[in-house]
Amino acid sequence: MKNAKPKTRSKPRAKSRPVAKPAEPSPKAPASSRANASSGVASGAARNSAAALPITVTHPDKVFWPEEGYTKLDLVQFYNAIFPSLSPYVEDRILSLERCPDGMNGQCFYQKEKPKGLPPGIPTKRIRHAGSSSESTNYVVGGALETQLALANLGCIAVHVTGSRASTPRQPDWLCFDLDPQSGKFADAARASQYVRESLEAIKLAPYVKTSGSRGMHVFVPLRVGPGADEVLSFAQSFVGRLAAAHPRELTTEHSIAARGDRVYLDPFRNGFAQTVVAPYSVRRRPHAPVSMPLAWSEVKPSLDPASFNIGNLAGWSKRADPWKDFFAAPQDLQQAATLLDKL
User: Fold this and answer.
1) pLDDT digit string, tens, across residues 98-132
2) Which domains does the chain have, with CATH numbers?
3) Alpha carbon distance 218, 293 (integer Å)
4) How far lies 38's CA from each of 46, 71, 87, 312, in Å?
5) What does pTM read for this prediction?
6) Tell me, what DSSP letter sits at residue 59?
7) 3-state secondary structure 147-168
């Protein structure tokens, strides 16, 4: 990044344990699980545990992932089990809903307004659109287990969250870069993430990384609340512009998909006001029901299969030490980083 010309900015818990090496199980569920689910009927044990859920699951036997046989009930039970890990990333955050009522192979639609059919008392936040004195959206706010399970029951497979809390909706508390490999190869995104990491560290920011749950990666930096969304987005655009200029054969910020070639697209726009990104531990509407998994940087390797973290092998990977456990403990100074970026 040192030789790159800057682009013009647009307006717009306990002691740490060593991180376990990620297991590499088959992306598919174990044979016994597949046998129970292949008919679309949950096992007797699953039916009994469903009775203990804080919501009623409608059509629990509906198959959401036909190849694996995972049902809607499987999805709801996954979120029930993982919620202690997911909770810090949805607490008091505005949610954008991607509803897929028929699962993996059905039609999906996006919804921002609080939908009908949610239990009473689900928290919301009404936000007025910029430039309008009357138009507003009543968003669902995350943080409660009942909210998460009720949304899964409505077919919300993925959890899409904003970068700010509902209490400070125009002031993000994280910075996010979405790395999308145009080659379709996760290995390219893994290599690109190391460029992002090195460049962020050069301006005194300590980044965290996770799989997107699809073919890409997400790099996050926790921020001190203060700068507005426009300022955070402007910084992100300047940063990726410089980085892409320094590595033009591997990275790109081209808006035109055709112009990107097989390079990794560095997307800064998740940082815009009310824009969203999938939360850590979110399930994705992809084959094998993969999960967006927080990683230690030592785990980021081109050979990693992101689908090896999925709802079928929760018992295996959920025992790993949490590489993001200190994420919110040390928010970082964006203004200092911006000053250092300008000096490069």
Assistant:
1) 999 999 999 999 999 999 989 999 999 999 877 66
2) 31-343 (3.90.920.10)
3) 10
4) 14, 9, 30, 13
5) 0.86
6) S
7) HHHHHHHCCECCCEEEEEECCC
